[in-house]
């Protein structure tokens, strides 16, 4: 069997490996596939190139000269100055080919370490019109990204004014364009008599270097500082579907549940925001809370109505702006459970047939020292084998009714003429034992207990999609209470759902989560 030497290269190793592949009855197709892949000539070439590059890397090469392009041009000029042999003609053809010119140009850029873009000189006619006291010429370089600024026409004067500077965009990064600046020209084209949409199209179509002639604002606004305001969106937003947006290209699309960093709320109608975790550094426009909840002739704004149409109909009638049920944004903060704090309360809600109680009991049975349920109260008679405070807290109907009036129950109801309920004190009793309390409640209860009093609560919803009725139940819960839910478990089977729930509970103790700001301040 051939043996590789210590100095064997990658392409030699690849060739040896290919020669050793022997199809057998069990893995014939796999072996044939691997042999075809490893036998590709292009792969062998790549291996050789890789080896050469590694050799050069170990040698720490330095450029022989920093102006290979100039040298190539000088040689080409010299060759064209007299009669040429066949070899000289071939050399000239190579030197003037665009591909070699590009390679030599890149070589010089790397050798000179000159990576900043080079702006072309200003046109001559700009110098004649330049008034240093009133006009500023701004040169920006952008790729295919938007410029990151919106414009408007001043109703009083008719001039075109920079309305917004989007955080992280090309205009913002330059530090040369500010809100209130008057825009006169774009790449030498006057915009005085153009419509704002025509100007926006001119800016979006410009690539590479963009030259702007502007008159600075009398009082330039200070650069915006990063905000510490974070919002959880409770609705879906698509700028392309919103005719009210001042610039659809500058809009920021988001989904219900996304966390948005609002970098400025200076405009009462349109905020600038970024999605947390988004690699795009440029901020985008989102409708402000006040604007999104603003009533019109048919209820709330269309983009919000569409996200709730299954509940109230497409007209949006019956919405009350400011009602917690219809909040558009919720201010949130990062929360990390500390060692000296009581364990979290976990609330489970489920669709019809989800068998939440079974899932809860399985998780607790797997780790009874870590998780527990709150012992419920009941007015039914105690059975002989039952102990007070173990299966239930047995109380009289008068005592139960008094506790209901005093708001001592998280949830309560009647079954076969007996009252049942889960008390706040029962939850606190579990937490006092340093255990995570798990309760399952009706979906409508989750809204009532989602407040600072239960600020260590985490809500999970489970869906069971075996039957149409169950699917409809899950859809209804999602429409009415989905914005209150932190995690969703899709139940394929009891074992997988139980394992997923255990994973969520473990992460609650070691990871940070976004929670309503009021919970942290309380």
From TrEMBL:
Residues 137-218 form the PDZ domain. It holds the Pfam family L27. Residues 6-60, 61-118 form the L27 domain. Residues 343-506 form the Guanylate kinase-like domain. Keywords: SH3 domain. Residues 226-296 form the SH3 domain. Residues 302-322 are annotated as: Disordered. Belongs to the MAGUK family. This is MAGUK p55 scaffold protein 3. The gene is MPP3.
